[in-house]
Amino acid sequence: MNIVVCKQNLYGGTDKLLERMIQWLRVYGYHVDVYSTEACLKNKIYDLAIIPSSQFGDLWEMKKSGIEVHHVLVWIMGMGAFRDSYYNPNAEKGIFRYLIRFLKYKASQALRLLYSHRSIVFTDIVGVYNSFLAEPIDYESSLEELLLPIAIEVPEEQSALERKNNSILRIMWVGRVSKDFKEIPLKKVIKDLEHLQVEGKSKIEFTIVGSGDAINSVKEYAEGYSLNIRFVEEVEYNQLGEFIRKNTDLLIAMGTSALDGAKVSCPTVIVTPVREFDRQSVYYRWIYESKGYSLGEFPGLDTATHQVQKDIETIIDEYYNEDNQGKYSRDYAMLFEINHVFTKLVQRSLPEPINAEMWKQIHFFYRMKKVKALIKRFLKKG
After folding, report:
1. Three-class SS of residue 223?
2. What are the two backbone dihedrals, phi and then psi, of residue 76, each rounded to the nearest 5 degrees?
3. Source organism's superkingdom (predicted)?
């Protein structure tokens, strides 16, 4: 099978995941090219194009260049990624509300068409739900096919962690310390752990591994507590697993950072992301209690998946009173293991062929991105 992949050409998780997929497919004998306007792919024929939603218009560029693509699979990586590729929901005000309403309509058309062609997959169930929220589509029967999680390298199975000191509970945060949706949860973790210690449930050492634009705010906040907190700005990624195993009994994180602990058999807890304007509580759950590959979702938007919500007291009680959280965490991480994920991808039958109606949607997306780029350039000059 001949495959072409469109990347965003931006630093971030999407292109890293696509690169991981490309290398895996090549190892297993698939011919894979990466599309760019500079690449010499003219007059080539591809059975399948795999693209993130932001690059939907690249298919029109290919067609103009004489590249023939028979099928497309759009991989949605993130809760609002499909919507965001069409419009910014926060811009629906003033004279722009009419434009946003039109783009909503076009996004809805494209989503329904991609679904009917079996040409769309999502990294987690919350992304599925929020994308289809306003659509009269019963996706439940095809949910398993709609889900293709992120893929990670998982090391060989390791023994469960042994606690180094029964009188001290070592807890670790791993991940960015950013203002977007991580600052509030991290401060809540500090507050909750302090409360546990004051109540005499545990003597706690808390290590924060990571940095970002909220790190100074978090450090200042931490000064108001007696909790023993250590800040580690960075650990080389290839050493992170061993660092976690040597320095913690329990990991608290969100997103792919949670998998960094789970895959090395560290008992791992998901903490939910919260933004300043959400006015939502922060909740916890064991990573293996997550539904549909979700590694953290904004609580106010999780109105369909009903993810487990616990407080920190319940988590710590379960940690002390139950065994095998490390094993269960690793078992869950194996669902994201690279061979498991990409085998699922290649065993999936091809989507329906791209037809005239699909090309209309692709052409609209292509022109829309061109207009957006011109507007941005104009506003920048202004």
Report:
1. coil
2. -90, 115
3. Bacteria
Strand 168-174 with 250-253, pairing = parallel
Residue-wise burial string across 63-87, b where 16 or more C-beta atoms lie within 10 A, e elsewhere: beeebebebbbbbbbbbbbbbebbb
CA gap 85, 14 in Å, rounded: 14
- Please tell me the total number of residues recorded for the chain in this structure: 382
Per-domain residue ranges for the chain? Answer: 2-151+343-366, 168-336
Instruction: Give the whole-angstrom CA distance, residue 182 versus residue 169.
Output: 23
Alpha carbon distance, N-terminus to C-terminus of the chain: 48
pLDDT one-digit tens code per residue, 317-355: 999 998 899 999 999 999 999 999 999 999 999 999 999
Buried b (16+ CB within 10 A) or exposed e, 7-45: beeeeeebeebbebbbebbeeeebebbebeeeeebeebe
Determine the Cα angle at 250 with ends 296 and 254, to 5°.
Answer: 15
| H or E element that contains 131 | helix 125-131
Superfamily of domain 168-336: Glycogen Phosphorylase B; (3.40.50.2000)
Q: What does the pLDDT look like over 255-310, one tens digit per residue?
A: 999 999 999 999 999 999 988 766 678 899 999 999 999 999 876 666 678 899 99
